[in-house]
Specification:
15 strands; nine-stranded mixed β-sheet; globular; alpha+beta; 281 residues; binds N-(5'-phosphopyridoxyl)-D-alanine
Length: 281
């Protein structure tokens, strides 16, 4: 049984209990982070803690821990759960209070963290690529906040799964924003296009690294959303996230993307990503 962290204590997962009056449970009033851990080392932790603060600020919620307290707690949690490759999940909710839309006063936020083994991405996702479908982006207007209210994302990802695909690419006002649980890219004439960091997309930590690695390899990047038509005509399509890294999309709405195989620029980027991971950061 894994150890989890809840409100200042490490306890066994089956002992961790949260009140039914927790605003995370009743109102979805909370934010979260997912941090990959390789060989016991948290990957890009600083970026994740910065984004956690950004999400908390975005919903006017107090951060219950300082960055160094988060770091110490996460390192202990990883150690307690056997180090190696893990996926750390953190969640902060506004706390426990009688149900009311208005924020409660003087309530302690609920802080929770768990860590689970990080499963390697299936080999054929990389050798063959994954399938995606396009769907309308039905989410709210503040997608830069990593909120626990994931019902739209969950519905869209399930829709992809029901269609035999692994990801849903979201279209808002005719342009691709991101994936249901990933950032998304279209490669057109040797340039990487990805939606700019605004309220329509989550500022992905993996996205940040993809753009850094592209710059280091002199691959041009345009932080510009592509239209649905440009997406269909793209030479390559990729998605990225902390737990799945960077994956090539080789089928879109049942039609092959270019040759239907992972593209040359993805291969270059993935090898840079793997090298970077080996070095740690
Ligand atoms: N999701 N966009 C959305 C909507 C996401 O849910 C995620 C990640 C990303 C990629 O962000 P990052 O590179 O920082 O993981 C983009 C996580 C993994 C999840 O919800 O489990």
């Amino acid at each position: 049984m894994n150890d989890v962290f809840l409100n200042g204590e490490f306890i066994k997962a089956d002992q961790a209990k949260v009140s039914v009056f927790d605003r995370g449970f009743l109102l979805g009033d909370g934010v979260y982070e997912v941090i990959p851990v390789y060989a016991g080392h948290c990957f890009r932790l600083e970026g994740h803690l910065k984004r956690l603060q950004h999400s908390l600020d975005g919903v006017r919620m107090r951060n219950p821990l300082s960055d160094s307290q988060w770091q110490t707690m996460i390192e202990q949690l990883v150690e307690r759960n056997g180090a190696g490759d893990q996926s750390v999940y953190l969640q902060v909710t506004r706390g426990v209070a009688p149900r009311d839309h208005v924020f409660p006063e003087n309530v302690e936020p609920t802080a929770f963290a768990m860590s689970n083994p990080l499963h390697a991405v299936p080999a054929d996702y990389k050798s063959k690529g994954i399938a995606a479908i396009t769907v309308p982006d039905i989410r709210w207007q503040n997608c830069h906040i990593k909120a626990i209210t994931l019902l739209p994302n969950s519905l869209l990802k399930q829709q992809a799964q029901d269609a035999g695909a692994q990801e849903a690419l979201l279209i808002r006002d005719g342009y691709m924003t991101e994936g249901s649980a990933s950032n998304a890219y279209a490669i057109i004439d040797g340039k990487i296009y990805t939606a700019p960091k605004d309220e329509k997309v989550l500022p992905g930590i993996t996205r940040e690294l993809v753009l850094e690695l592209a710059a280091s390899a002199n691959i041009p990047v345009k932080e510009q959303a592509v239209s649905e038509q440009q997406l269909r005509d793209a030479d390559e399509i990729w998605v990225s996230s902390s737990t799945k890294e960077v994956l090539p999309v080789t089928m879109l709405d049942g039609v092959a993307v270019s040759s239907g195989n992972p593209g040359a620029i993805w291969k270059q980027l993935d090898s840079l990503y793997q090298q970077y991971k080996q070095q740690g950061d």
